[in-house]
Amino acid sequence: MHEGSRSAVIAALLANVGIALSKLVGFFITGAASLLAEGVHSLVDTANQGLLLLGGHRSKQEASPEHPFGYGRERYFWAFVVALVLFLLGGLFAINEGIEKLRHPHDPEQLAVAIGILLFAMVLETLSLRTAVREARHDKARDESWWAFIRRSKGPELPVVLLEDTGAEIGLVLALIGVVMAKVTGEPRWDAAGSLGIGILLVVIAGVLVVEMKSLLIGESASPADLRSIWSALSSAPDVRSVIHLRAEHLGPDELLVAAKVEFSPDLSFAELAERIDGAEVVLRTVVPSARFVYLEPDVSRTPT
To answer: How does strand 291-298 pair with strand 255-264?
Structure first.
């Protein structure tokens, strides 16, 4: 995990610890279902950041006989757990709480306390989101949309934190609307509706993250830009006549497995060919440092007849 992603995750972790405690205290004071749903949401988010940090730590393990290509995909696995289990469970809890409050309405108490806590949480979430946005701008193209960045990114941490913080901001607005409308109209079911909205939001975010992390976990190709750079680097290596076939897959956000069939000059001896293959690997790693594992197979280009 690079330093920018770590900073965003730690900022979100610290923010969510404070937010979760304040929301749960607010729930015990006011009895607002929206505050309970948001409190559980923040506890889930806190656990999320803990799992992302765990994945980053475990991905640094050295390759072993059982895992010869290393542990880079640990980051994808734990991000998948975040999406599949924690977001989903948090969302289902909030939906269940909302349904329960619809069946057995309860008037929220201490409106000023609830509003104060929600506004305090908004400030902390905004600071966390600002950190994630700042760090993501280092990797995001200027003309690229945020949705495209989340879909394209090979690192799981920033997309998770961006979606998580954006969802938290929307959830806080829903909770605020729920408790205020419940008090203003005298209809406590507004509070239950806020909890339902938060739960549905979390399930939607979970679905998006499950799809994205599943794709990374089973293996995604290198980006088109990296593929072009790899092709160009190999083509420019000494005595390379052409690149016949190329595949490159992410073993982790910053690690690529590259396999290629390359046509070398036919005049090379066996020893010279081995030397040129080693040289091509050096050129490739200089141009694309993330190419950690490189396998080049010498071959002859065959023109279809």
So the answer is: parallel
Q: CA 267, CA 202: separation in Å to the nearest integer?
A: 62
Better pLDDT: 8 or 299 = 299
Q: For residues 171 and 199, what is the distance between their CA atoms, to the nearest angstrom?
A: 9
HEC per residue, 73-95: CHHHHHHHHHHHHHHHHHHHHHH
Identity of the amino acid at 94:
A
The answer to whether the beta carbons of residues 220 and 154 sit under 8 Å apart is: yes
**Residue 64 has what DSSP assignment?**
-
Q: 240-252 and 291-298: which strand pairing?
A: unpaired
Report pLDDT for 191.
78
- Alpha-carbon span 280 to 109, nearest angstrom: 71
Predicted TM-score (pTM) of this structure: 0.76
Six token digits for residue 244: 């016949």
Task: Give the CA radius of gyration of the chain.
Answer: 25
pLDDT, residue 276, reads 93
Contact 69, 257 (CB under 8 A): yes
- Cβ proximity of 8 and 132 under 8 Å: yes
Strands, E, within 15-156: which ranges? none
Alpha-carbon distances of 87 from 39, 146, 160, rounded to whole Å: 13, 21, 11
Greatest alpha-carbon pair distance for the chain in Å reads 89
Phi, psi of 295 (to 5 degrees): -125, 115
Residues 6 or more apart from 159 whose CB is under 8 A from it?
A: 149, 150, 153, 209, 212
